[in-house]
Design goal:
The chain contains 7 helices and 7 strands. The chain is an alpha/beta fold. It has a 5-stranded parallel sheet, with helices on both faces. Strands 1-2 form a two-stranded antiparallel sheet. Helix 5 (220-228) runs antiparallel to helix 6.
Amino acid sequence: MQHAVGAPLPPPEPTGWAQGAGRPPLAQGGHQAPHPHPHPLPVPPGPPQAPHPAAPPTPGWTTGGVPPHPAQPAPAPRDTTGHVQLPPVAIPAPHPAEPGTGTATLAVLLIGPAGAGKTTVARHWAARRRVPTAHISLDDVREWVCSGFADPQSGWNEHSEAQYRLARRTCGFAARNFLANGISCILDDAVFPDRPVVGLGGWKRHVGPGLLPVVLLPGLEIVLERNAERSGNRRLSDEEVASIHGRMAGWYGSGLPIIDNSKYDVETTARVLDEVLARSIASPPAW
């Protein structure tokens, strides 16, 4: 629209007012109220000024100088501590399944007649495990008594039974002490299935409910041959060996694992023992 010379110019739009909002009120009849200064003086332009350097952002504020909304804080990055990015954690690969008992902490009772090879097999098995394992022989502990030793060749009586009970308690205490310190143990004893007084229940009571019994029972001719190679009070008469072997047959049908090592050498018997124990760990025998 063109205006005549000398006619008043329309007032300028106030700075910062939006279209249709914030204007001066209209006069009656729809006409806009006159501006208080109908002839505003022009403002001469000032000297050019250098732009102000941008101020560094305030910590915790955004680049535009507006703090984040207090109700919606900025999410912290994942896996951080003190706003320091952590490296990814390497998860070790699972070890492959180990054959036999592996590194399990065990308490084993190897049962068998005189001449079955209990002590030799137990010591061999304990010496070749990959974890600390102790061998505790009841006969060795019984022979700690020097004067007044109840010699098994003299038969079983009240005196020999008292020393047997004492030796069994001593072995049980040693086994519990080893197990409490993370050391496996294997004990060996000629436990009879028909003697509850000096039987399996006493070993379970002294060592603990986790005791794993295994019976080593070769043929009679084998135990007779091995007994003949013994010396001192460890050697028994053939009649006594045959009697003990016959009573050990009562373990058949008891639910305990039985190893017939008549045709096995020491190395093979120890390996079979480890396999039997691995199965007993997975499915403990009820006794």
